[in-house]
Design goal:
With 103 residues, this protein is α/β, with parallel strands linked by helices. Helices cover 44% and strands 20% of the residues. It is built from five helices and four strands. The model has no long low-confidence stretch (mean pLDDT 89). The structure holds nicotinamide-adenine-dinucleotide.
Length: 103
């Protein structure tokens, strides 16, 4: 349970609904992205990562999960691939995006 979610009692319904929505982190397996994933999960957000692993490894996401105790929803793919972006936005309840996919 994240710090923010622990404190949710007494907060209004709208704020709780926002915390139940997911944040897309492109390049989430990379250096800045993986640290961002930890902070977001520990703040109570669900995290969806899109990364083609051209400069990283899925191991960093396993470490994120080990640190936070929460699952990262991972899509392996390129940010230029419209099909995978379409699938992600269709399937996941994305409310905003942190874009770190780049070298
Ligand atoms: N690290 C820094 O100090 C720093 C400073 C200023 C700016 N930046 C910029 O911030 C961004 C992230 O930096 P970082 O240090 O975390 O780099 P990083 O290489 O560790 O992370 C980038 C991630 O994006 C992924 N990626 C790259 N191209 C992709 C694509 N086309 N589709 C999907 N995934 C892709 C890589 O596999 C990697 O996991 C980069 O654009 C970098 O130039 C970094």
């Amino acid at each position: 349970m994240g710090r923010k979610k622990d404190k949710i009692d007494g907060k209004d319904k709208r704020e709780k609904e926002e915390l139940d929505m997911a944040i897309l982190v492109t390049g989430g397996a990379g250096f800045i992205g993986s640290h961002t994933c930890v902070e977001l999960q520990e703040s109570g957000y669900d995290v969806v990562v899109l990364d083609n692993l051209c400069n990283s490894s899925e191991k960093s996401l396993e470490r994120v999960e080990a640190i936070t105790g929460k699952k990262v929803t991972f899509y392996k793919g390129d940010i230029l691939d419209r099909d995978i972006l379409g699938r992600i936005f269709e399937k996941e309840d994305i409310v905003c995006c942190f874009h770190f996919a780049g070298v």
